[in-house]
Specification:
By secondary structure, the protein is an alpha/beta fold. The protein is 31% helix and 22% strand.
Length: 587
């Protein structure tokens, strides 16, 4: 493959040198997508993050693999990766539906290398779900691990699982980070460093995927995999596990190598387009079982990514609270965009003037008198972001509160329908949309504590849809916080945590509000399907201009996350940068 590609991309005079030194290495990286920053992470960080000791007497882990005409090279590498595990208390169950008898004989022979391997030859191939269930019936372990027939495990995978189970006695479901393996098995690339348990992310895509380990009695309760969802049977399985409220633990280490083989979804999701349809059906089943009123919308050009559209019962009043001080042109652009681009009919706008003095401002406010759903109130106190928003809340009558900066502009007509729908979900705390700079790069796609030293906006200045080691910005996610520039929350939940902390003057109270909601058991949601423009710093200034007292308070309120890290961001990613990238060194 390298030689063929060389003929296309290298000058004729250099072709004879393609297998020499650095030229060969560079070309191989080009062919197999080898990531130099990830290679550096593997070299400098991976081993240092692992448990130094090997557990000798832990719980038995049964790994189940449905095989079907698996190339000899792939199944050999899979079996070798299990045999070489540093943790010894395992069982490997291979359920083989191969129609090639010679290949089946080869797989059987390979399985005879170790007595801990159970080989089951199926009379007929019944599909991935039923073949998996056949393997499941022969398991003896207390926990079940799921491995695809052309992938491999890291040598330390089961030892890390055993350590995690020892530290988390109540764990029902574990999942790890993963990366991609080149078809020839030589190169690792495209890591996915995942967040801790993020329910809203799972409802948008199967981010858990690999390596998943589940307590066997829970697998039995669920009833294994369902054939009707072949293609996304693992997604359906995970969604059904949620019905039992399992204790879910994330292992922030790369334990699984997903091979980019021909026909594999690791190479291109389009290889298995039926997986997208099966995944949508699985998600619809989950919504029906849990009585969640929502539609599942297909996302064009993003197969196996799913968009929920929550339905709103009764269309309750939504109060849009906009504090401002003069800058009438900004305010007019914001209010006009709301009036022109809001399908949701039952809303009011609360304009809170904080010491405005300009004649143009007052003239503009007078022009709004014709709108019955616009209320203009005055707050004469010295500027305090928290206090002025709390004052606005007192003037609001809505069941849902939308705190909105005056330097924002609505883009899509269904923005309020979507944000209100998400905020009304019982488990939801604060909701924030994607905010864009005028050049359509990201200003806000979630707030990560510890990022840039205090709290940063992940994906900032990146284009939407850019693939990173943390996935993409276009997925709904749970974060500890979302920005107050556009923050939506049920009024009763806002009042439950006593609103914004007025000790903060300019910066930090939006994050603290979200943390207060999180501590009450709510989950804060970033909702990328709603986008607004945000002309940041054109109103009251940037975060860097906040008074020192705000930083001091943030240091207090953001603990323990400043010390231990943000659970919704991966510890293997460098928090010095808002664009996700692997750490350069282990800390």
């Amino acid at each position: 493959m390298i030689r063929r590609l060389a003929r296309k991309i290298l000058p004729a005079g250099s072709r004879q040198r393609i297998f020499a030194g650095k030229v060969k290495q560079r070309l191989a990286r080009y062919v197999y997508g080898d990531d130099l920053t990830y290679r550096r992470w593997i070299r400098n960080c991976e081993q240092q993050s692992l448990h130094p000791s090997i557990i000798k007497h832990g719980k038995k882990i049964s790994i189940i693999v449905p095989t079907f005409n698996t190339p000899k090279k792939y199944i050999k590498e899979l079996i070798d990766s299990v045999i070489k595990q540093s943790y010894q208390n395992w069982q490997l169950c291979l359920a083989d539906g191969s129609t090639d008898n010679a290949l089946a004989a080869t797989i059987k022979k390979l399985s005879e290398q170790d007595t801990r391997i159970t080989y089951i030859k199926l009379e007929t191939n019944q599909g991935i779900s039923e073949n998996t269930n056949q393997a499941l019936r022969h398991t003896k372990g207390e926990f079940i691990g799921f491995l695809d027939h052309d992938d491999t495990l890291a040598q330390w995978a089961l030892n890390e699982v055993a350590h995690t189970l020892k530290a988390n006695a109540k764990a029902d479901l574990l999942y790890s980070d993963e990366d991609k393996l080149s078809a020839n098995g030589k190169y690792r690339s495209i890591p996915f460093f995942k967040p801790d348990w993020s329910p809203d992310l799972l409802l948008g895509t199967n981010y858990m995927a690999h390596f998943v380990v589940v307590k066997k009695n829970l697998v039995n309760k669920v009833g294994g995999l369902r054939r009707k969802h072949d293609g996304s049977q693992d997604y359906d399985f995970l969604l059904r596990l949620l019905d039992y409220n399992p204790t879910i633990v994330h292992i922030p280490k790369v334990l699984y190598h997903w091979r980019m083989a021909e026909g594999s979804t690791a190479r291109a999701i389009g290889e298995k387009s039926y997986a997208d349809r099966a995944g949508r059906d699985a998600l619809k089943d989950y919504l029906r079982r849990n009585h969640i009123q929502a539609r599942v919308i297909k996302i064009e050009d993003q197969p196996t990514n799913y968009r929920l559209y929550y339905l709103i019962k009764g269309k309750p009043l939504a109060s849009i609270i906009i504090p401002f001080k003069d800058k009438p042109q900004l305010l007019k652009a914001c209010v006009t965009s709301i009036l022109q681009k809001t399908n949701y009919a039952n809303y009011e706008i609360i304009l809170v003037s904080n010491n405005s003095t300009q004649k143009k401002t007052h003239d503009y406010l007078k022009s709004l008198a014709k709108y019955e759903n616009i209320k203009i109130v005055s707050n004469a106190q010295p500027f305090n972001y928290s206090a002025v928003n709390n004052f606005g809340r007192k003037q609001a009558s809505g069941k849902i509160l939308i705190f909105l900066n005056n330097d924002t502009k609505i883009i899509s007509n269904d923005w309020l329908d979507e944000l209100v729908g998400v905020s009304l979900q019982p488990a939801t705390g604060a909701v924030g949309p994607m905010l864009l700079y005028p050049d359509k790069t990201i200003q806000h796609a979630g707030v990560v504590i510890q990022m840039t030293g205090m709290a940063g906006h992940v994906f900032r200045k990146m284009k939407p849809g850019t693939l990173t080691p943390f996935g993409i910005s276009d997925w709904p996610r749970n974060y500890l916080a979302v920005t107050g520039a556009c923050l939506v929350v049920e009024a009763k939940k806002f009042d439950e945590v006593k609103g914004f902390n007025e000790d903060f003057v300019m910066a930090g109270s939006d994050v603290t509000l979200c943390l207060d909601l999180f501590k009450k058991g709510y989950r804060n949601v970033y909702w990328p399907y709603v986008k607004l423009f945000h002309y940041e710093s054109k109103s009251v200034g940037s975060y860097q201009k906040a008074p020192p007292r705000d930083y001091e308070l943030s240091l207090i309120h953001y603990q323990p996350y400043l010390k231990q890290g943000d659970p919704f961001y991966n510890q293997n990613l460098d928090t010095q940068y808002e664009s996700p990238q692997p750490r350069k060194k282990y800390e």
